[in-house]
Amino acid sequence: MNKRILSVGMAALAVAGLTLGATGCASTKKLTIAFVMGAESDPFFQAMKVGATAEAKAEGVDLIWQGDPSHYDVATQVPIVDNVIAQKPDGLVLIPTDPTGLQASSDKAVAAGIAVANVDTHTADTSKAIITITGDNADGGAKAADAIAGAIGYTAGKSYQVVVGLTSATATTNVGRYDGFKAQVKSKYPGIKIVDVAYSAANPQTANSNVNNWLTKYPNLSGIFAIDGTNASGAAAALQAKNLVGKIALVGYDAYPANVDLLKQGVFTALIAQDPAEEARLAIKTLVDYIKNGTKPSSHDVVIANVTLDKNTSDADFTKYTYVATN
Amino acid sequence: MGNSIQEGQELSFLDKVKASFRNQSTLLVVTLVILAVIFQIASEGIFLSVGTLGTVLNDWGSYILLAVAQTFVVITGGIDLSVGSTVSLSSVVAGWVLVKGMGLDTSISGDAALPYVLIATLVCLLVGLAVGALNAFLINVLKIVPFIATLATMGAMAGMAIIISGGMPLQGPNDFNLGIAYNVFGVELPISSTILTVLIITVIAGLYLHKTRFGLYTYSLGSNPFATRAAGISPARHITKVYMLSGGLAGLAGAYAYIRLGAGSPSNGAGMELYAIAATVIGGVSLMGGVGRIVGVALGTLVLFTVQSGLLMVKVVEVSPSLKQVIVAILIAAAVAVQTLQKNGRK
Amino acid sequence: MANKVIYEVRNVSKNYGAVVALDGASLKLHAGEVVGLVGDNGAGKSTLVKVLSGAHSPDSGEILLEGVTKVWHNPKQALDEGIETLYQDSGLAQHLTVSQNVFLGREKFLKGIFGKLGFLARKQMELEAEADLQAVGIAFPSSNRPVSQLSGGQRQAVAIGRAVSWARKVLILDEPTNHLGARQSGEVLEVIKRAKKKGLGVIFISHTLPHVLEVTDRIVVLRLGKIVRDAPTSEYTADTLIGTITGSYHGDEN
């Protein structure tokens, strides 16, 4: 940074204290990209931070990483975004917690000359965003259905009982995955019957009780779809405690190192993994390209597919998809 | 008894007092029986099974230590909102010590895992005591009311748990023997050594609350802090002990969660404080302080988780998960209403 | 009065912010003497009681017990030295039983290992509480009943009985006949007379002037934080006492 400033000489130093437009001085000033995510506590965003930090370093830009410590909530996110806009970054990667609630903040950023990218979720009107990148939850749900069908040796004409552990009725990731799961079961595996769902309210011990009760209620249970990390933890412990590992198919979500460990031990039949780091990398790269060179991405809406991890997955892929903590 | 000039009217009055003390527990036992019958019918005969009872007792084990902790604190006239976060933090710290600190091989199981389980329990207890000491400091020294002080700790400890774990679960020793039921004469009892340990702790806590000076001061502080101080007792010192007890019990609940799940996750204690408070209220503890018994709280916790499991076992009608929340809320409101009626009846 | 001075304050003052609650008050209490402390609301009676009981420290002045200077940091120190105080309206924990209240802060433990672990000798304390209250001469309800179940008069009886049975040197009673009927007030006054016979120094604070005139040996009148008159009870009449309290009567010079 010092070399660069020295090379542009006294003239640049004279205006260094002033606020500069993104276009005028792109080549003389280190770019700043702000990244406002949903909730720091979510491992998903932790993994995203890893990707964002790496990409920011590779591109040589400063990263402002912001978001509520634990609440995925529009009420706390709006002031955070407004505060970030006031810092006048060159680009803003926004994970809106609500499509309409964050529209005004997003528009404000665009009006201030800040390039905006949406990741994971998006605002109602995406036309002013440079790019919209989403993980495909419905696709993840469908992949979970495929994994369960494969594990139980699905044969047409037979009937199977399957349950789904959810966190709440409204969490958007839950809804997307569950819808994708249901649709896939309906079209491809009509013999599979989703006999029950229950909520964990984000506590793995509650998820554990739900699975324990299902094991009593459905003695012939074939499979469990644990829709997120919380449900995956609770379900894995339940099958281990009752010595049912391998007897009931368990498909979980999120490639926490602990879950990947359990997959390798055979407790999970399969894990559906997102690639949050890739989403973050792509968002930052796209913004930097746009700010520096004015190039827009070839596609405005990008979907990053989920992947299925199971016993056939290569070590390289395990390394690639396992979430890494930032500490 | 005694030489009171009002001996005649006293016996009947005394009986009334005794009856009102018995009431909450009797009421809860009756409630349990009624619930068991309803769920047995609605589940088409599977509710009263070893499997369901095991799940109910497992949940009871997860929450009773927090409910007991809350009982002590609420009787002093305070509240401890930080117990859920303490569960999360202590199980995460235990996971961190075992996995990152001691390089635990997560595939070990059985007797080989027992020393690690004991270390984890000790770590959890220490973390809990530290959180309790912090709460006491905020309340005694900085003079912050318990609701706000423990609300602050609740947020801070949840944050710490995320920072330490990176937001992901840390694995534990794979010893689910602790969760396996005893087999007596070929009948599998829905009781594990973990739950048995928790039960013993609960009984000891009950004896301490009802039979010792520590318990007496707990009641007197919630009943009349001025009289307690006038009697030469230091309220600050007792508050420190009570909040450290609460933290310590929450830490043990963290160990329970860690053992139960085989994972120390920052969400292990999510929302548990509200269930713990609900269980104490259903068990007959007054949020105004000075009133409550451990037997009632133990039964109240059992009622709460009988309902939780029972609603999932229902087969004859579809109970949506959202409706479950409404039913639990109605149960809590009913418990408070009964308390108020009992109190008014006594006056 | 032939008896020795048992408790004394010299020139004590206490301010709460800008409010002067007590302004250079001095008071002597002899063993076997009942001193009445009277004054209008805000005259400084409660503050003086708190200084005497160890609940508040004075800003200046001296406290002497049997001629020895004392500094109370908390009520416990005064209690341990034999000074018992019955506070106005707030002496008991309502959710505890009679015996638990009588023994609060002075519990008896079981013998052996359980006692070491903090387990209380409940039965023993119940019996002793009954005996103590009986010795004080108060009609009392059975000692294992919660105080919340008692009438106002019964509560006051327990509170007074508690203070009297524990007091070794000084007994301070702040409005002990408040809210009591005539018969119960009479019982309380009898208790005070018996405490005097036992050789205790008693400070009796009350608004009910006939009670003060009946039971005290000496009456100290406080006004605006100052002691305006300290004289044997025989030198007051009901009218001059009221006059001294309100400031309309100026005693000897008239």
CATH topology description of the domain at 5-91 and 167-253 in chain C = Rossmann fold
Number of strand elements of chain B: 4
Rounded to the nearest angstrom, the radius of gyration of chain B is 21 Å
For this structure, the CATH topology of chain B is ABC transporter involved in vitamin B12 uptake, BtuC
Q: How many domain modules of chain B?
A: 1
- The largest sheet of chain B has its strands arranged as 1-4
Largest sheet of chain B: 2 strands, antiparallel
The spatial strand order of the largest sheet of chain C comes to 6-7-8-3-9-10
Beta-strand portion of chain C reads 25-35%
Q: Radius of gyration of chain C, Cα only, in angstroms?
A: 19 Å
What is the level 1 CATH name of chain B? Answer: Mainly Alpha
Runs of chain B in which pLDDT lies below 50 for 5 or more consecutive residues are 1-10
The CATH homology group name of the domain at 5-91 and 167-253 in chain C: P-loop containing nucleotide triphosphate hydrolases
Features:
heterotrimer, B: 347 residues, mainly alpha, ABC transporter involved in vitamin B12 uptake, BtuC, two-stranded antiparallel sheet, 12 helices, C: 254 residues, alpha/beta, Rossmann fold, four-stranded antiparallel sheet, 9 helices
Q: If you had to describe this structure to a student in words, what would you say it looks like?
A:
- The complex is a heterotrimer of chains A (327), B (347) and C (254).
- Chain A is elongated and about 65 Å long.
- Chain A is built from eleven helices and twelve strands.
- Chain A has helices at 2-14, 43-59, 74-86, 103-111, 137-151, 172-188, 204-217, 229-241, 257-264, 276-293, 315-321, and strands at residues 32-39, 62-68, 91-94, 115-119, 131-135, 160-166, 192-199, 221-226, 249-253, 270-273, 301-304, 307-310.
- Residues 1-27 of chain A have low confidence and may be disordered.
- Chain A has two domains: 20-129 and 281-304, Response regulator (Rossmann fold, 3-Layer(aba) Sandwich), CATH 3.40.50; 137-273, Response regulator (Rossmann fold, 3-Layer(aba) Sandwich), CATH 3.40.50.2300.
- Chain A is of the alpha/beta class.
- In chain A, α3 (74-86) packs parallel to α4.
- Chain B is mainly α and 347 residues long.
- Chain B has a single domain (24-346), classed as Orthogonal Bundle (ABC transporter involved in vitamin B12 uptake, BtuC).
- The longest helix of chain B has 36 residues, at 7-42.
- Chain C is α/β, with parallel strands linked by helices and 254 residues long.
- In chain C, 34% of the residues lie in helices and 26% in strands.
- Chain C has helices at 45-53, 75-80, 98-102, 113-116, 122-136, 152-166, 182-197, 209-215, 238-246, and strands at residues 5-16, 19-30, 34-39, 60-65, 68-70, 83-86, 170-174, 201-205, 218-223, 226-232.
- In chain C, the strands form two sheets. In chain C, strands 6-7-8-3-9-10 form a six-stranded mixed beta sheet, with helices on both faces. In chain C, strands 2-1-4-5 form a four-stranded antiparallel beta sheet, covered by helices on one side.
- The interface between A and B is large, with 47 and 51 residues.
